[in-house]
Amino acid sequence: MHNCSIVQQLKDLKTGKYSAVELTSHYLERIKKLAPLNCYITVLENKALEAAKNADEDRAGGRDSALLSGIPIAHKDIFCTRGVRTTAGSLMLDNFTSPYESTVVEKLRSAGAITIGKTNMDEFAMGSSNENSYFGAVRNPWDQSRVPGGSSGGSAAAVAAGLCSAATGTDTGGSIRQPSAHCGITGFKPTYGRISRWGMIAFASSLDQAGPMTRTAEDAALLLGIMAGRDKRDSTSLTDPVPDYSASLNQSLSTLRIGLCEEFFREGLDSRSEKVIMNAVRVFEDMGVRITSVSLPNIKYSVPAYYVLASAEASANLSRYDGVRFGYRCDNPVNLEDLYKRSRSQGFGNEVKRRIMVGTFALSTGYYDAYYRKAQQIRRLISNDFKNAFEQVDILLGPATPQPAFKLGEKTDDQVSMYLQDIYTIGGNLAGLPAMSIPSGFADQLPVGLQLIGDHLDESRLLATAHQFQQQTDWHLRSPELETGE
Amino acid sequence: MRQQWEVVIGLEIHVQLQTRTKIFSGASTTFGSEPNSQACAIDLGFPGVLPVVNSEVYPKAIAFGLGVGGSINLVSAFDRKNYFYPDLPKGYQITQMDKPIVLGGSVEIPLADGSMKTINITRAHLEEDAGKSMHEDFHDRTGIDLNRAGIPLLEIVSEPDMRSSAEAISYARYIHQLVTYLGVSDGEMSQGSLRCDANVSVRPYGSDVLGTRTETKNVNSFRFLDRAIRYEIARQIEILESGGRIMQETRLYDPDRDETRPMRSKETAMDYRYFPEPDLLPIEIDHAYIENIRRQMPELPREKANRFHTDLHLSLDDARVLAASPALAEYFETVSGQCGDAKLASNWIRVELLGRMHRDDLEISNIPVSSSQLATLLTRIRDNTINGKTAKDLLDALWYGNTTSVDDYIKDNNLMQVSDNSELGTLIDRIFDENPKQVEQYRAGRSRLLGFFVGQVMKETGGKANPALANDLLRKKLG
Question: If contacts are CB pairs under 8 Å, which of residues 40-69 in chain B contact chain A?
Fold first, then answer.
């Protein structure tokens, strides 16, 4: 039952093939047996079982109207959960229990979903391998010597390994799509502002966006419909009405135009991955989709611009972790400066400190124009590139990552190479566009993710395209073989 | 020869906007609550929280902008000002740097010599207040109260147009009156609703180059502002005259020692690393919104002064003085309306009331004589019940709390003016009998002695004689 989509599980729960308690217990069993994957920071065994019991009682009493009633979902540990530890993968928040619920968790819970646990992640969502977690690296279920990608690595690996029905993630520069690609699942990042950021621990506020991580595009549509919408607690959340994504999955794509991003198929792309992607393109061609080639001339500046902007915002967003009101505080501070210095030096990991320093530098007097302002200009140029591209095509296509999952430790000493892992995903964040990664084949037994990028608020068409691709392929149905003794 | 120095002062005034809740959260703004009882997760800067602008702040900031004739930016935006301090929970303050809500404007302030001066306003912007650090009462530690964190402020920045501490105080008082009058702020200075940062420099007279300035921060009373500025002027002149150089620095005024002292110098000045606040969208305001606020605004001091001059025929000088403070203007209009004589009301308020207020260091809001008491008193002058001298005594009686009712006091103390012809005539005849020498001298041409007889009449009547009638009768009988 752990390899089924949510849509299938809902049917099974309805027909009584298994109960919510059975489903939840099954996942809890698997989480224990597959603990070495290190997908979870916190497992909410008792709370989840209690919620499952309630769901079963509701169903027995005919009160199972909630859309996701009885479905166990894992939340990236960046979403605040009331009364539950929320760490953001950092020692800084190791002792932090949130007094409030994030909008994403609240909406899914209200829809009947069971919160089964909080997933591992790169500290404060900064990383592309999940090796930057205070709680240790997550292992890729397809090859446990490899990384799952990051920063939503715990969520991606948990979905791939069948440790939850679906998971939530956040994507600032590719943190949903890149691990989804590496773990062979469907990861969706909506238009910036489509899902409220309330209660989602901030990394880079103008780029952060939550999204669902699922087994299928159909599940993603279902979850997105619940997660999306205006939230008066987040001024940047969009007021546009939320369409019925599930209902439009089978919309006609006969006039669809897909553009291949020229710049994504140049030097740097692994040839095995390229082959997989081109095979996927042929699937679309067979579906009758018109394929053309488009150029995003400024996309080559996206990585440096991103690392300036995201780090600048992060440097301010992470100032609140000062050891004064909550979170980690150093032992016996002798004065204020000592309190700040040691609490932050000890409480943050190296990558977080590196980005705080980069961001602080980029905003400093005398450097602001050369870095922050310049990066903002590049951001506008890249947005314009996308705007031009969407005048020619409906959806952009390319790889989600330069190559399949790499080995644990392989890139930890090479920051530039690590940062380049997000080279194909960052553009979507800078332009605030909806984008997703879907399984499109394997390279040496490792999943390869296909990235689709849509125009502003064009989630419906993007999900329909992915769904109809999944009707023609079975890559998304493949699961890694894992020893559980079952 | 001794160098003559010109003083240059600009003020940054932080005004607390009168709102029920904070600028970015739903926490209450009520003053004086238990420390940290009015700080929610947003004010505490908890992980994952987001600010949402309290829409109550826009009409207030716009009303101020219109009140000083500034322009309202149709698109303004928030920025983050980054610095670490324990009472700044997020490690940055949300403020407006590049696009403030109000640009430009000016105010007319009264000077000591009765003339008016224009002070230009550079800008006014919205921002959040920080919390309060308390270094006393916590042995070896600092207490932090975050009730103030997130209180909405309007920072009003003036041009360096003031040339003395008196001008600076007059300007600050004007701003205080204006924001109170417009309902922008409650103006409670004892609660920190208005705080001033004074930028002070001096330069040789005739120079058009500004001297190096210092900024004295966070002064919360007009008296302290006056002292701080005067201390700073004296300090700077002393340094320059002994051949020294002024350091550009931030200073604090210590009222206990009546001095300013350095807080931080430019060398260690903070780099605030401003950048646009990504959690908030730009504020977009349309003309209709602004016009709606303009329509609801009360009459402004300068409009009021013109009306007092044109409609009530006060001198322009009287009109400006009475209109300068909304509370004073309201007091004047009540008295004037009730007694039916604007000129009489104006004279009594300017001379008698303002004189007593100045002497006793009182504000119009806390003087012991109500407008209707003064109106009754003036009415009794107009209907000849009492004379001017009695009226002044009566005003003192009201001022010192010896009575609350004008009419009762007149009756109880038998202060009615003596306007009876025969009663006064009999009295005058008696005075003549008792002072034959003076009568003789007067009739011989010493007409100045009329004053002596008036004095005698007043003395005998306990000051109650109708002065005009007494004069008349005396002239007739001496004639």
Answer: 41, 44-53
Q: Locate tokens 């699942």: which residue?
A: A185
Residue A69 falls in the annotated catalytic set: no
How is chain A split into domains, by residue range? 6-262+391-477
Q: Of A23, A58, A62, A24, nearest to A44 (Cα)?
A: A24
Q: Which of A5, A19, A69, A76 does the annotation list as catalytic?
A: A76
Taking 80 as the threshold, does the pLDDT of residue B180 lie above it? yes
Query: Residue A362's pLDDT band (boundaries 50, 70, 90)?
Result: very high
Given the cut 0.90, state whether the ipTM is greater than it: yes
CA-to-CA separations, B136 to A155, A162, B32, B131, B142, in angstroms, rounded: 49, 58, 18, 15, 7
> What digits encode the pLDDT tens for the residues A308-333?
999 999 999 999 999 999 999 999 99
Q: Do residue A363 and residue B49 have CB atoms under 8 angstroms apart?
A: no
Determine the distance in angstroms separating the CA of A173 from the nearest CA of chain B, rounded to an integer: 16
Residue carrying structure tokens 């690393």: B273
- Domain covering A6-262+391-477 assigned CATH 3.90.1300.10 in the classification: yes
**Does residue B265 have a pLDDT over 70?**
no
The pLDDT value recorded for residue B268 is 63
Question: Which residues in chain B are contacts of A99 at CB distance < 8 A?
Answer: 41, 46
Asked whether the predicted pLDDT for residue B1 surpasses 60, the reply is no
Among residues A19, A151, A237, A302, the one annotated as catalytic is A151
For residue B198, pLDDT over 70 is answered with yes
Q: Nearest residue of A to residue B143 by CA position?
A: A324
Q: How many CB atoms lie within 10 A of CB B473?
A: 20
Q: In terms of DSSP H, where are the helices of B182-325?
A: 222-241, 287-296, 301-311, 316-324
Can you give the pLDDT at residue B448? 86
pLDDT in tens, A371-402: 999 999 999 999 999 999 999 999 999 999 99
Q: From its phi and psi, is residue B277 left (phi > 0), alpha (psi between -120 and 50) or beta?
A: beta
B24-32 contacts at long range (C-beta below 8 A, 24 or more positions apart):
B24/B51, B24/B52, B24/B53, B24/B54, B24/B94, B24/B128, B24/B150, B25/B51, B25/B52, B25/B150, B27/B150, B29/B151, B29/B152, B31/B188, B31/B191, B32/B191
For chain B, what is the mean pLDDT? Answer: 91
For residue B48, what are its two tokens?
A: 């994952």
What Å distances lie between residue A348 and A305, A313, A351, A437, CA to CA?
24, 16, 8, 30
- What is the predicted pLDDT for the residue at B16? 97
